[in-house]
Amino acid sequence: MSTGRLGATNRFVDVAGIQVGHHTAVGDGWLTGTTVILAPPGGMTAGVDVRGGGPGTRETDLLDPVASMERIDAIVLTGGSAFGLAAASGAAEELADLGRGFPLGSAPDEVVPIVPAAVLFDLGRGGRFRATPGEEFGRLAVRDALRGDAAELGSIGAGTGAVAAHLKGGLGSASQLVCGKYTVSALIAVNAVGSPVDPITGQLSGTSRLLVGDGTDLGVSLSSPEPTEVPDVVAWGRPRRPVPNADPNAQAIQNTTIGVVATDARLSKVLCTKMASMSHDGLARSLDPIHTMFDGDSMFGISTGAHEVTDVEELHEILCAAATVTTRAVTRAMLSARTTETTAGRWPGYLDLAPSLELKR
Q1: The domain 5-360 belongs to what CATH superfamily?
Q2: Helical pair 135-147 and 86-97, crossing angle rounded to 10 deg
């Protein structure tokens, strides 16, 4: 167990002003979805760090510290691989209809919403290869965010078709209070080539970073699975491997873990980029291997700017917390995943393979 204090509700939206919404499609060949993170009125500062070998993104160049745009209106995380980028267009259209965006005229709708996005690969997991998010997914996810109180754990939104190694992945979140006054949170869609499982103990690799209250109702630290459960957990949790190109039955290994770390501390674009960079340490603590040629791992860092930071030591703690909440969010995603089966395959949930841990929660 790590030491520290949970955010108010241990959710991504503990950073005040940020809203989250989803649109999820399951059944009839579908197993995918879209998640939208809405900025407070007036926008938010953002940075990005893309490290995977096969990313799919939109408007990330605008987040470069030397680019002119200082604030963004939303971020979209979505399934559907490159096709899923259409959901970001839908989110931008919906925001423009609401008059939210960079003003370019006198009329309320003469705005251009700035909506960076990242995609993960879940094509065909529901049974139909082209059952992918379109513009309507983005519009509906924005509306869901505006309603408030959307869930942040499990097979929802961008995490619907997510798979980690051979296990069911999904969406996970976590938050932490830093220096008694700043909140840092993470929202991660876990869809990795690498394994979230220790190959010796069968324990989730990020377990040691959990805080009391993470993944357990009673504040009890998660131990290793029972000895009889370990072989199955380790087998299903083994990293996916490339197969020979000559194999006509081979399925392409394409994954990608994507997410956002947020804080209410006032950070510049440079520091938001640094926060996104440090959050990748959290991925490396919980997924092995990470940043492979078959992943498109991309992390955004966002700041609402509610609280001024004047102490370099406090800044250091905020940036370090970005890695910690990322690890915890990945681990909580795996603890929330449940076995999913479609015509395309079966992906067991971690706790379904280790029911002894469920009893200890």
Answers
A1: L-amino peptidase D-ALA esterase/amidase (3.60.70.12)
A2: 50
